[in-house]
């Protein structure tokens, strides 16, 4: 018996990275899973991995499309309920950072367009698809897990500022949705990952080779990155499943749970070597 036997789950952005690992873990734990994204070949590859790991094909549903499109959002919810009879868990994972290639922060000439793109994907699509899913989640006393980022936290970021703004707004949305929905016994929480090696950097336009170099370099920066390695998708999938598991996390409501190998607790002032300062 898997932990999620008989549960109907949607994982958005499951054609790659954190979402793919999450969908696979849910399926291994007995859930019926809708996987979705724009790249059909990646979704088919994941479908194959799920079947190989023992999930019956009848427990998997694929929806291809752009999550910022309202018709796609409706299709994801409607087809899931029609195929699996209900919806228990919605994981709003699809996300990406859009910036200008000169890293001009919020003063880029294209700033309003870039802000809109970041908000459309990382914030508005989450708000809208959750609203569409709401009656079904109320019917099952379901769970919502949003995927935010440590980019939302209380420090400034010059790199991809619009993305940080969107994820900070997403954290507030998580709290607002949690308050609204807990009255109907639906829990909403978020996971805020630190750096995880996925296609995330490549999706911002950084070539694969350079992305790998960045992940390798970050892993050597132990002062800013206390864990002994960069995160892997399963590190985050484990936390998502914990928050989606009512028995394990029932009393956690409206929280943004950081999973970052400790990087957010050593930023800024904490990097100053006080011992060295005293010895001068
Ligand atoms: P990946 O780029 O590997 O995966 C992103 C997923 O989102 C893909 O499945 C992609 O599918 C999907 N996606 C992106 N845009 C759209 C769209 N318009 N419509 C539908 N699907 C879309 O990145 P991660 O796995 O790392 O990212 C997952 C989540 O984790 C995101 O919300 C990200 O912001 C967050 N995160 C990631 C961190 C990291 O260091 N990796 C750190 C903190 C947070 P497709 O391309 O097929 O459309």
From TrEMBL:
UniProt-listed Gene3D superfamilies: NAD(P)-binding Rossmann-like Domain
Alphabetized Pfam families for the sequence: adh_short_C2
Q: What is this protein called?
A: Uncharacterized protein
Q: Indicate whether Ribosomal protein appears among the record's keywords.
A: no
Top-level taxon of origin: Eukaryota
Task: Give the PROSITE patterns listed for this entry.
Answer: ADH_SHORT
Keyword list, A-Z: Oxidoreductase
The opening ranks of the lineage are:
Eukaryota, Metazoa, Ecdysozoa, Nematoda, Chromadorea
Organism the protein comes from:
Diploscapter pachys
**Gene Ontology MF terms in the entry:** oxidoreductase activity
Give the PANTHER family listed for this entry: NAD(P)-BINDING PROTEIN, PROTEIN CBG09704
């Amino acid at each position: 018996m898997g932990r999620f036997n008989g549960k109907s789950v949607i994982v958005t952005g499951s054609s790659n990275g954190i979402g793919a690992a999450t969908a696979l873990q849910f399926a291994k734990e007995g859930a019926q899973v809708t996987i979705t994204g724009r790249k059909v070949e990646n979704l088919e590859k994941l479908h194959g991995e799920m079947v190989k790991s023992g999930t019956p094909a009848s427990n998997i549903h694929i929806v291809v499309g752009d999550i910022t499109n309202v018709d796609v959002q409706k299709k994801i919810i409607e087809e899931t309920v029609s195929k699996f009879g209900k919806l228990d868990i919605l994981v709003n994972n699809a996300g990406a950072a859009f910036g200008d290639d000169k890293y001009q922060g919020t003063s880029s000439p294209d700033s309003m367009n870039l802000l809109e793109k970041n908000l459309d994907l990382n914030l508005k699509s989450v708000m809208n698809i959750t609203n569409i899913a709401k009656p079904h989640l109320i019917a099952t006393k379901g769970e919502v897990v949003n995927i935010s980022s440590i980019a939302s936290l209380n420090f400034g970021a010059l790199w991809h500022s619009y993305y940080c703004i969107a994820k900070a707004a997403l954290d507030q949305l998580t709290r607002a949705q949690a308050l609204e929905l807990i009255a109907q016994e639906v829990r909403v929480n978020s996971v805020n990952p630190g750096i995880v090696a996925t296609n995330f950097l490549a999706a911002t336009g950084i070539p694969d080779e350079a992305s790998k170099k960045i992940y390798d370099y970050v892993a050597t920066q132990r002062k800013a990155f206390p864990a002994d390695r960069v995160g892997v998708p399963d590190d985050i999938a484990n936390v998502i499943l914990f928050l989606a598991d009512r028995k394990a996390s029932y009393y956690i409501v409206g929280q943004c749970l950081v999973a970052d190998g400790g990087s957010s607790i050593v930023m800024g002032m904490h990097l100053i070597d006080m011992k060295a300062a005293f010895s001068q």
